[in-house]
Write a structure and sequence with these properties.
Blueprint lengths: L8 E4 L6 E2 L2 E2 L3 H11 L2 E6 L6 H10 L9 E3 H12 L4 E5 L2 H9 L3 E2 L6 E4 L7 H12 L3 E4 L5 E2 L6 E2 L1 H12 L4 E2 L5 H11 L6 E5 L2 H10 L3 E5 L18 E3 L6 H5 L14
Parallel strand pairs: 1-4, 1-13, 4-5, 6-7, 6-8, 8-9, 9-12, 13-14, 14-15
Antiparallel strand pairs: 2-3, 10-11
Helix pairs in contact: 3-4, 5-6
Length: about 270
C-alpha cells in the first residue's frame, strides 16, 4: 500500500479518539493543531446527536481542543440531510436532544406527535418511558422509523454508557420494525462528509475507536483507516472481526508527527513514509 496517493484529507471520530466525555485524550489537542497548521482539509465525524456543532465546539474548547464549527459533522446533521433528500418539509416525532431537533428545524421539518411521517430516534441522557411508548405507538400506526446511529454503547471515564442502538432495539422488539440508521457505519454519512470537503476517498483517512462503525464505514467508502485503542474496541477484539484497519495505534498521539509530514502515508506495516 506504499504506492497509494498521499493523504490530503483527515476524517476522525470524536468520542474515544479525541475525548472521553469532556476529558481530552493525551495528544488530541496537538493532533488538531497539527491538522490546522498542515493546511489539509479535515472534519470530525461523530455519531453523537445530542449537541449541535456549535455546542460541540464549545465543549471541545473546554477540553483544550480548538475545532472550527464548520469542521464538525454529526449524525444529527446527516440524518437531517437524509430526510431533506427523502421527504422535504416533512414531519417527525423526535426522541432526542437539541442537536437533533435543531438540525431538523433548520431543514424545515415540523416536530409533532400527530400522525408524523417519521419517528426519529437520537442520543439522549434522559430517555423517557412515556416518549418511547409514544414512539412505539406511532410506528405501529405507520410512521417510518429512523435512528441517528446504531451504537449500542459508548465510552466514558466511568465506564460504558447505553446509546441509541440499545433504545432502538427496545423499540424494534416492541414493534417488529427496525430503523434505518443514518450514522456510521452507513457509508452515507461518510460520503456526505467527503462531499462537503470536496475530497476524494483515495486521499482520505478515517480515524476511529470502533471496528463496527468507524473502521467498517471507512473501509466501505474506500478510505484508509486507523483504529485507536483509547475507546470502545479493545486490542483483543480486533482479530475477531472479518476485516482489518489499515493501521492500529495506541492513541491519537502517535499520529501527530504523521500529520506534519510533507506527503503522509498510512500503511499496513504501520510505517509513515514520505
Amino acid at each position: 500500500m506504499t504506492d497509494r496517493r498521499p493523504i490530503e484529507t483527515w476524517l476522525t471520530d470524536m468520542d474515544g479518539v479525541l475525548v472521553h466525555e469532556e476529558a481530552p485524550i493525551p495528544g488530541a489537542p496537538e493532533f488538531v493543531e497539527a491538522l490546522k497548521e498542515s493546511g489539509r482539509r479535515f472534519m470530525l465525524l461523530t455519531n453523537n446527536s445530542i449537541y449541535t456543532p456549535r455546542d460541540l465546539r464549545a465543549r471541545l474548547l473546554k477540553s483544550g481542543i480548538d475545532v472550527p464549527e464548520e469542521a464538525i459533522w454529526t449524525s444529527a446533521l446527516a440524518t437531517a440531510q437524509f430526510l431533506l433528500d427523502q421527504r422535504p418539509r416533512g414531519t417527525a416525532y423526535v426522541v432526542g436532544e437539541s442537536g437533533l431537533t435543531t438540525a431538523l428545524h433548520e431543514i424545515g421539518y415540523v416536530m409533532t406527535d400527530r400522525d408524523p411521517d417519521y419517528v426519529v430516534l437520537g442520543e439522549t441522557r434522559t430517555y423517557s418511558f412515556e416518549a418511547i411508548t409514544r414512539a412505539i405507538r406511532l410506528i405501529e400506526a405507520g410512521a417510518r422509523f429512523i435512528a441517528t446511529n446504531p451504537d449500542a454503547s459508548g465510552p466514558s471515564q466511568q465506564g460504558t454508557l447505553p446509546a441509541t442502538g440499545s433504545v432502538a432495539a427496545l423499540i424494534t422488539t416492541a414493534t417488529g420494525r427496525s430503523p434505518y440508521y443514518v450514522g456510521k457505519p452507513n457509508p452515507l454519512m461518510m460520503r456526505s462528509a467527503l462531499n462537503r470537503l470536496e475530497a476524494h476517498s483515495e486521499t482520505t483517512v478515517m480515524i476511529g475507536d470502533r471496528m463496527d462503525t468507524d473502521v467498517v464505514s471507512g473501509l466501505e467508502a474506500g478510505l484508509r483507516t486507523v483504529l485507536v485503542l483509547t475507546g470502545s474496541t479493545r486490542p483483543d477484539q480486533v482479530e475477531t472481526f472479518p476485516y482489518r484497519p489499515t493501521r492500529v495505534v495506541d492513541s491519537i498521539a502517535e499520529l501527530v508527527d504523521l500529520v506534519a509530514e510533507r506527503s503522509p502515508q498510512v500503511t499496513t506495516e504501520g510505517d509513515a513514509e514520505d
